[in-house]
Design a protein that fits this description.
heterodimer, A: 501 residues, mainly alpha, two-stranded antiparallel sheet, 2 strands, B: 496 residues, 19 helices
């Protein structure tokens, strides 16, 4: 066993540990609520540690894909030729960054859910299943398993939101699940068509990517199916006009699910656009990217405008997520080195920042049982630490230098100006709107006269501080020392077909 | 020389059927659940006897019946289904009837009917096997004769079933009239040997046969009997209907269409494709409106039949390798579908034994009162919907992939869209169990250990197929191969 393969088992462990945890939790009696929490906290710590290791151990100047693990799953049967279906796990610069994001948010979410009393065993079983799916999607180099884990990450959401959610939870859960699965219908069709058209008898992604580049997948085919793949994945990335599940879903979801969902799951959509769109169908990408750019800009401006008019704090963050994912799509659509790098940076940045925001909203909602910002005022006096944490998240959201949002958005704007100056201008307009809705929220909630009803609000608990602290550390690290991120990401981005430097 | 050894497994099954009926005749006081366990034991013996045929050289009995891997596949499947359904019935029938031996005997006989539907390489043999299965099902559906719903279901099923048999027979006679042969090999030879264009009578014959078998597998617009029969039948018989009779229908269709009339595929493949599109769309759209679980599963299984029919169309569009691909996909999906359906009905029977309700609202709050069954039902529904980890994901993906040709691409797309629609009504069931509080008694209750054990075993099977589909897929491919290789299996080498 080579060292690289040994590291491959680390990658496998990111999926195996959550699944083992889920299985262990099945065996724990539902009345042992503390045991459930301990198991989950330990799992979160292990998963977070593993993903930090994967991020750190990724060699920037090494080969493109590292930590490879291949297990032949099914081959030489019927239409499956050699390597028909392989459990093929590997890490490249993009997925190593996404791994770090997932690990941090998963741990933060696991300890933020400590407070859950109602059937917390079932909650954590679904939570860890979901995260196994997320890790699996990021690391899979096999189309079968990519799609397997992609669906696995979507599947538990219905129950997570429907059972533990708030505010029109049934509606939010059903809308979210049906829209996301509806999106994956398009991916299913794309998968069948790709396999049939490539006619290689394998789901191995690198081989299919090669087929996409050497013309085995004909240009007409790529132009036909690229929109399917991108819209299918785009639903999860809140691509306008398929974003409508996002505000409702986030509003209904319990805290940890909002964190993981906005923080990590939405990135799966953008990641899918890279893997199944840009890498699989470069011809299609070249043809359709201007269209994606337009949708991305509309999403960015629309999301920010809608956030300006909302009163529910979660809805503001929900629409802000639509806006930020719009930036990600714009970055991808630039198809130049700096723009695409910026898109991946933004995926990370938005992930940790929005997870922090939802953590903070959860912290106040659990006590106040309202999220309408008009109900609040002068919260600074009772929850100073909460205000500080929220402010950091908000400023990262706005894109203040020193925080992750600046690094990411700067890359995206530069990339956009290179190819589409007009849209670059509109994106900056959206960023200005972001300052508007964030400062409006700060002014109303944090300052002004305090209603006596909130005088007994408690500040963040120790666990919330730990959880939030990790997220803030990630935000600040990316804001001041982004070289580790940009090195990893751009090493992968340069190799994407059709991306100009 | 006539080789009677190829029938040994069915000697065991049919012999046990007679023995079980005889047992109750002479010992009327024999425990009714004891009969179920004896039936299960007979099914095990049948299954073990079937294992000896795996990978053996194909044999033909007078050009009428082929014993090859395809037959063996359905033989093992039949034994497996009878085993599970017999155990499922133990409690249910003991509480509801005083005589149960015919019930279990007929179940074994029906299984034999399925095996010979798969094995038949001649039209009349195929027809007799089909009727053997149909007649056992008519009786089983109406077995609770004091229950009006059960009798009504049986009557409706008999009338429509007889009608469909007549259509099948008419189609057979037209084909015989043109080709002068009833064996599949003879038909194929006569059809490919013609010089001029296709005789219209042959096309009418194909369509009538398609309608006849369409009735049996409840393809729309021939599905009218299914929801009523499912609703009225005793719960385990509903499970039997939705697994064994569907699988048997496809066994007959596969052998007949691939061996006998594939040479004239251009005349029927479009019709199968339209039938598939219609069946899956109607099944899934009507399922949304159902209030009764058995009716809902009836429509959901109509939807599944629609997906499966695509592979038959794909056989028509493909070369022999394409046929093997499509058939392997269909066979692995049949395993996955059968396992998920049996799992669903095992859990539902356990719940029904306790609550006596088979409407969707009856499951309200099941996650509180019986979390294990709620989990099991969720597993089976997720498997139907094709979500990962469960059999449905891998088997559906392989089936659709195998059935994808340039011509069938649009139906595959429609099928994926349909399986998205199906998720909606599966979620509606899950919602009842998990999102609502139980009504009435809220205390936890225990599941009968036999049903509980059965459910655990089936969950493991569903998970295994879903996570590691390799073995099941290899088996399916081995079973599919004989259909597309000229030889004994297609009846080509007839023993004089």
């Amino acid at each position: 066993m080579t060292f690289d393969e040994g590291q491959g088992y680390v990658v496998l462990a990111t999926m195996a540990v959550p699944l083992v945890a889920a299985f262990l939790l099945v065996l724990v009696p539902g009345t042992q609520k503390m045991w459930v929490r301990y198991i989950s906290a330990v799992t979160g710590a292990i998963v977070c540690g593993l993903s930090i290791y994967i991020f750190a151990a990724y060699q920037v100047d090494g080969s493109h894909t590292q930590m490879t693990l291949r297990w032949v799953w099914v081959e030489n049967t019927a239409f499956l030729g050699k390597d028909g279906v392989t459990l093929y796990l590997a890490v490249d610069g993009i997925s190593s960054t996404m791994a770090l994001l997932t690990g941090v948010v998963a741990f933060a979410g696991a300890i933020a859910s400590w407070k859950i009393e109602y059937r917390n065993k079932d909650f954590y079983i679904l939570y860890w299943t979901l995260l196994a799916g997320v890790f699996g999607t990021f690391f899979s180099y096999d189309l079968f398993f990519f799609f397997f884990f992609y669906e696995l990450a979507v599947m538990p959401l219905y129950l997570l939101i429907g059972v533990w959610g708030s505010t029109r939870k049934e509606y939010g859960a059903a809308k979210l699940t049906l829209m996301l699965v509806g999106g994956s219908v398009l991916i299913w069709i794309g998968v069948f068509a790709t396999f049939h058209e490539a006619n290689l008898g394998t789901f191995d992604l690198p081989k299919l990517w090669a087929a996409g580049q050497d013309g085995t997948l004909s240009p007409t085919f790529q132009k036909t199916f690229f929109p399917m793949m991108v819209i299918g994945c785009g639903v999860l990335a809140a691509l306008w006009p398929f974003h409508t599940w996002s505000p409702d879903g986030h509003m209904s979801a319990p805290t940890a699910v909002s964190m993981v969902h906005a923080g990590v799951l939405m990135k799966l959509g953008a990641f899918g656009i890279i893997r199944l769109g840009i890498q699989l169908m470069p011809e299609g990408a070249a043809f359709w990217m201007p269209g994606l750019m337009v949708l991305g800009v509309i999403g960015a401006v629309y999301g920010a405008t809608a956030a300006l008019t909302q009163r529910d704090m979660k809805l503001i963050s929900g629409y802000s997520s639509v806006s930020h994912m719009g930036y990600v799509l714009m970055g991808l659509a630039t198809m130049n080195q700096i723009g695409v790098t910026g898109a991946v940076l933004q995926m990370f940045s938005h992930g940790v920042m929005t997870a922090l925001v939802f953590l903070m909203i959860g912290a106040i909602y659990d006590q106040a049982h309202t999220r309408d910002m008009k109900d609040f005022g002068g919260v600074t006096r009772v929850m100073p630490l909460w205000v500080i944490f929220y402010t950091i998240a908000g400023l990262a959201n706005v894109g203040l230098p020193g925080f992750s949002g600046f690094t990411a958005e700067f890359h995206i704007f530069v990339g956009t100006f290179k190819t589409y100056p007009v849209f670059g201008g509109m994106a900056i307009f959206a960023a200005a709107l972001a300052a508007g809705y964030m400062l409006r929220l700060f002014a109303i909630v944090f300052f002004g006269p305090m209603s006596p009803r909130w005088s007994d609000l408690k500040d963040l608990t120790a666990l919330e501080r730990l959880s939030g602290g990790m997220l803030i550390a990630s935000i600040v690290m990316m804001g001041v020392w982004w070289a580790p991120f940009t090195d990893r990401i751009s090493s992968a981005v340069t190799l994407l077909p059709g991306v100009t430097s | 020389m006539r080789d009677y050894t190829i029938f040994i497994p069915e000697y065991i099954a049919a012999g046990s059927a007679v023995a079980i009926i005889g047992l109750e005749l002479f010992m009327p006081k024999f425990r009714k659940d004891g009969l179920a366990y004896l039936t299960a034991l007979a099914a095990v013996a049948w299954f073990v006897a079937g294992l000896f045929f795996i990978g053996k050289d194909p044999k033909s009995f007078q050009g009428l019946i082929a014993s090859d891997d395809f037959t063996t596949y359905f033989r093992l499947l039949a034994a497996g289904i009878v085993f599970v359904v017999a155990l499922m019935s133990a409690h249910y029938m003991r509480d509801r009837t005083k005589t149960a031996s015919e019930y279990y005997g007929l179940m074994l006989v029906g299984g034999c009917g399925m095996v010979y539907m798969a094995a038949a390489t001649e039209l009349i043999t195929a027809y007799i096997s089909l009727e053997l299965l149909s007649f056992t099902l008519y009786i089983l559906v109406g077995y609770l004769k004091r229950d009006n719903l059960s009798s009504e279901a049986s009557l409706k099923y008999i009338l429509l079933g007889a009608f469909s048999s007549a259509m099948f027979l008419y189609g057979m006679s037209l084909i015989y009239g043109v080709t002068g042969s009833t064996t599949y090999a003879g038909i194929a030879e006569a059809l490919s040997g013609r010089e001029s264009g296709t005789d219209p009578a042959v096309i009418v014959g194909f369509m009538l046969i398609l309608a006849g078998v369409g009735f049996k597998v409840s393809a729309a617009p021939f599905h009218m009997w299914a929801p009523d029969a499912y609703e009225g039948a005793p719960m385990p018989v509903t499970a039997f209907l939705s697994t064994l009779s569907k699988a048997a229908g496809f066994a007959l269709i596969l052998r007949l269409f691939s061996a006998a009339i594939v040479v004239d595929a251009a005349e029927w493949r479009w019709a199968v494709m339209v039938l598939a599109a219609l069946t899956m769309t109607m099944g899934n759209l009507i399922a949304i409106q159902q209030k009764n679980l058995k009716r809902l599963i009836a429509y959901s299984s109509i939807g599944q039949v629609g997906y499966m029919l695509i592979t038959i169309a794909a056989i028509g569009y493909g070369d022999p390798q394409g046929g093997i691909n499509a058939t392997s996909g269909l066979l692995i999906h049949i395993i996955g579908y059968v396992a998920s359906t049996l799992l669903f009905f095992t859990a539902l029977t356990a719940a029904y034994n306790k609550t006596g309700r088979d409407d969707i609202d009856g499951l309200k709050g099941l996650a509180e009162t019986q979390p294990f069954l709620a989990l099991v039902i969720t597993c089976s529904l997720f498997s139907f919907a094709g979500l990962p980890f469960f059999a449905g994901f891998a088997t559906k993906l392989f089936m659709f992939q195998g059935a994808t040709t340039s011509e069938t691409m649009w139906v595959v797309g429609l099928a994926v869209l349909n399986s998205f629609i199906s998720l909606y009504y599966y979620l509606m069931i899950i919602r009842q169990m998990y999102l609502y509080e139980p009504v009435g008694e809220t205390a936890r209750w225990k599941v009968n250990p036999v049903l509980g054990g059965l459910a655990v075993a089936l969950v493991l099977a569903v998970l295994f197929i879903g996570m590691y589909p390799g073995p099941a897929f290899t088996v399916s491919e081995e079973a599919a191969k004989p259909l597309f290789e000229p030889g004994v299996a297609t009846g080509m080498a007839r023993v004089p």
